[in-house]
Amino acid sequence: MKQRANAKDEAESGRIGSAGSWRRCLIYRTTTYKTTWKLRLAILSLVLILAMTTRGWWGPAIGWGLVTDSGFCEPDLILIDNLDIDYLLFEKAEELMKHCGAATVLVPVTASGQDPERPGLVPRGIAEVMIRVAHLESTELLPIREIEPITLNAARQVGEFLKSRPDVHSVLIVTGGFKSKRMQLIFSSVLGQMGVVAYCFPVWGTKRPENWTASWHGVQEVLLQYLKLAYYRALVL
């Protein structure tokens, strides 16, 4: 009797095993572990604390990552990055003109909507006021058509202008500090094809690589400049 019962159990288990084997080909069961909201909150708090206590180390490193290290030169022409109007750039260009002895300062301004060969009335007026207050001499306004991507097309239009200036072999671009690496990348790519060497001189206001993490405006500017730099590197140049 026991032998028949054992045989019956083995046959039954065989049928179950064979059924389980084909089911495993279709579905399977796993055990998963999920973190609790308390653990997630603790990890997030730890990350924030570490970020705040060590920002004196990683903050300047990230900030200086946007700054060019192209060096300095005695340029044939100084170009003011007037795409984002900033009086400090005009003031610094006046100092550099005295120090470098450049013959001309070129100031790009937004072109008129009616005549793209002429500066717009308002952008021209603003540029002329800044030139006068900064006591800049030997300046020339260059109408720029705002075509996306704006900075790249502005560099191309500057290149077209320089074709009429064969005496210009080097250009010093006066620009905002966090924009300098992107400007160096774009203008070197465009003007380098013409044999013109482009340098950048970064100008600083209140936000610098050492203190940009102290305000949300500084954080926003640094993040935006990194996104723009990545865009030009990946999709444009």
What's the CATH class label?
A: Alpha Beta
Helix residue percentage: 40-55%
Terminus-to-terminus distance: 87 Å
| Major sheet strand order | 3-2-1-4-5
What CATH calls the topology is Rossmann fold
Helix vs. strand class: alpha/beta
Q: Provide the CATH superfamily.
A: HUPs
The total tally of domains equals 1
Low-pLDDT runs of 5+ residues are none
Work out the helix count: 8
Mean pLDDT: 87
Q: What is the name of the CATH architecture?
A: 3-Layer(aba) Sandwich
Q: Give the biggest sheet.
A: 5 strands, parallel
Order of helices and strands: HHHEHEHEHEHEH
**Roughly how many Å is the radius of gyration?**
31 Å
Proportion of residues in extended strands: 5-15%
List its traits.
alpha/beta; 237 residues; elongated; 8 helices
Give your account of this protein's structure:
The chain is α/β, with parallel strands linked by helices. It has a single domain (69-236), classed as 3-Layer(aba) Sandwich (Rossmann fold), CATH 3.40.50.620. It has helices spanning 2-24, 37-53, 55-64, 87-100, 121-133, 150-162, 180-191, 216-236; strands spanning 77-80, 104-110, 139-144, 170-176, 197-203. A five-stranded parallel β-sheet has the order 3-2-1-4-5, with helices on both faces. The N and C termini lie far apart (87 Å). The model has no long low-confidence stretch (mean pLDDT 87).
Set out the fold topology.
Elements: H1 2-24, H2 37-53, H3 55-64, E1 77-80, H4 87-100, E2 104-110, H5 121-133, E3 139-144, H6 150-162, E4 170-176, H7 180-191, E5 197-203, H8 216-236
Parallel strand pairs: 1-2, 1-4, 2-3, 4-5
